[in-house]
Structure formats: structure tokens, C-alpha cells
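Hey, quick one: can you model this chain's 3D structure?
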Amino acid sequence: VWGFAKSGCQMSDITVGPHLERAFHKVEVYTVEHLDEFSPNEISLILWSFAKVGARVEYLATKLNQHIAEHPNSLKLFLPKDLALISWAVSFAHTSSPLLPLTSLSTQTQSSPLPLIHIIATQSTKLPFILFHPHDVAMLVWSFSQCQLGLAAVYEFFIRYVCANIEKFQRDSLAMVMR
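Sure thing. Here's the predicted structure for all 179 residues.
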């Protein structure tokens, strides 16, 4: 699916859209059925590809959210670049069609899993700075702001990262973090 996304295919395209929709639906079903078999990078690329072509990511993101809630240690395998791609896909889908479960933490019950974007934000702050690339930080902060994430500790973590690594940022990544 990454190839379709990189080629510029869109679900809204009258010619390829219906075929693309069928293909992505099959990928979605297969991915959900075999979620344990996919690496974090593969999962992040699939979600990113869905968002990039305009496919609905709600079902896949919800299943990933449930999977992480049931297997919290699985999130430890995700690198910052994986978390950045997933957060971008979720925030992109949310801003273009706000259907994802992005309710605030205060409205969550004990039994419901935290929204995926909150889980990603929290996990990001547990990783050492050395694992982050400035572009990952830019993507994560942008995604969190798009979803109006209000976790001060998360932003504080990334502010410390930017201050400690300012010389590593290219202008576009720095601009993305700061806007």
C-alpha cells in the first residue's frame, strides 16, 4: 500500500478510486486479523499509506488502539519514526474527518482504552532523546497540536529536546515544530 500512497493515488480518483478502495479494504482486514505478525514499522507505514491516499483509518486505528491496550509492552518496540507516522496518520484523518476517538483523558473510563494519540504521546516521552530525529519530533508535535492534545508534560519533553538539539534541525522541521 505504501507504493500506492507514494505514487499519488487517491480514493477520490474516479478511475482508480473504486479499485483502490477494494484493495485497501482487503489490506485493512488482513492487517487487523494478523496484527501480531506485523512489525511496528510495517503498521506505521500501513496507517500512513491509508491516510495519504484518503482511505478511512478509523477502524484500523481503533483496532491498533485495542491491541496496544491489551498488549501494552508491544508499544515499547515502536521507534520514534513509527510513532510519528502513526500520529501523523491519525491526526491527518482526524482533521479531515473528525471521527477518531480523540476524547480527552478526563472523559475516559477506567475500562476504555486511551485514545491512540494519547498513548503515542505518553510513549514518546519514555524514549531517550538519542532515538529521535528532528523530523520525527516535528511530525509528533504537529500531530499532537492538530488533535489539540493538552498534555503539558508531552510538550515539555519536546521543548527540552528542541533546546538540546537545536543545531540538528533543518529549517523546515524547526518551522513545523514552532508553528
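One thing worth noting: The chain is about 60% helix and 0% strand.
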